[in-house]
Amino acid sequence: MLRTIEGLDVKGKRVFVRVDYNVPLDENGNIRDDTRIRASLPTLRYLLDRGAALILASHLGRPKGKVVPEMSLRPVARTLENLLARPVKMAPDCTGDEVKSMAKALRPGEVLLLENLRFHSEEEENDPEFAKELAGLADVYVNDAFGTAHRAHASTEGIARYIPAYAGFLMKKEIESLKKLLESPERPFVAVIGGAKVSDKIGVLRNFLDRVDALLIGGGMANTFLLAQGLGVGKSLSEPDFVSVAGEIMAEAAKKGKDLLLPEDLVIAAAPKVGEPPRVVPKDQIPGDMMALDIGPRTRKLFSTKIGQARTVFWNGPMGVFEVEPFRGGTLEIAAAVADVNGFTVVGGGDSVAALEMAGLSSKIGHVSTGGGASLEFLEGKELPGVKILEG
Ligand code: ADP
Ligand code: MG
């Protein structure tokens, strides 16, 4: 059982909250998208309303154990201050005497943001001394950063060995949603998997085969499956080294009586660029000098129909090169079909979520998973160290 902050008595306590403030910055160090900061507010407000003082910690970028001024969390403190409508103190570091006294001086309702955890290599090394120092700043630990839960770092795993540890609301929703897919999906359960590569998603494909009623495969990864069917894919993105894996997955699906749907037709062009005239061809007629860049209209219909019959849908991976307008149609149509499902829907993956935003349909999805690698590992059936430590 996941221990969560729901009902937790935090009055007068200092609470260390591991948040995910790994936000995109522009060349001038301004925050380009504050979604992740906004997403943390329910947990922060809940704790503040109950009389806690907050010590917030996150990583930003990949400073690799060194102080990189461009990766300071300082701009985040300013944004958070506006969103919370209360002062947010910025710490000069995440450990050390000065930080310790700043943490100690906090009164209920006050907020301190620590500097980038990954300025110290001990964070990613999960160094016990470093974890202990972090723990020493607070009475209680809360993790609301699902996106790093697949890593055993000092702030995601080590710290929880020293003070009582709980999941925040974001963490809770992410875990409950993904768990529901794996453990108790209402049927029919349809998974739509696309994106660039089979190699990224083999674990998920395999684990899902046992659980779904139908697996719909599109995007670049479908090309490798077409190769496994003995078809040519011209200059399309494909992974010849994974043709045998694709073949195995198809054979396994057949053995288990699961529907595995591949593109029947494709939108092709000479290159993924605006101005290259797109054309629709059946899957067995991709010319040698062309690239498959989106699923065709027949496939869209086939996939949408299957999705429309489902009570549970998981979608990860765009159906084509959605970044380029002429090759966006398949992804948008699938996004619309998923949004229309009368049941429980989960969309995951950075690019898939971006496509969903582009379609303006995020609010019509049951759970938009922002976990990236952590979500995929969870759906592969792996135990995540940052989740395990919050259970029991
Ligand atoms: P997510 O981030 O949602 O997990 P991926 O990162 O696996 O998705 O894949 C997204 C990328 O796949 C996009 O950049 C998209 O352009 C690319 N892609 C999708 N279909 C194709 C295709 N047919 N050929 C080349 N690239 C593709
Ligand atoms: Mg991606």
Structure in words:
- Helix content is about 35%, strand content about 15%.
- By secondary structure, it is an alpha/beta fold.
- It has two domains: about 15-175, Phosphoglycerate kinase, N-terminal domain (Rossmann fold), CATH 3.40.50.1260; about 185-380, Rossmann fold.
- It has a six-stranded parallel beta sheet with strand order 3-4-2-1-5-6, sandwiched between helices.
- The chain binds adenosine-5'-diphosphate and magnesium ion (MG).
- Adenosine-5'-diphosphate binds next to helix 8, strand 12 and helix 12.
Q: Report the sheet with the most strands, covering strand number, pairing sense and barrel closure.
A: 6 strands, parallel
Query: Averaged pLDDT, please?
Result: 97
Fraction of residues in H or I helices: 25-40%
- Ligand list: adenosine-5'-diphosphate, magnesium ion
The third-level CATH topology of the largest domain is Rossmann fold
For the largest sheet, list the strands in their spatial order.
3-4-2-1-5-6
Q: Which architecture name of the largest domain does CATH use?
A: 3-Layer(aba) Sandwich
Figure out the total of helices: 14
User: Unreliable stretches, pLDDT < 50, 5 or more residues?
Assistant: none
For the CA atoms, what is the radius of gyration? 23 Å
Q: Report the strand count.
A: 15
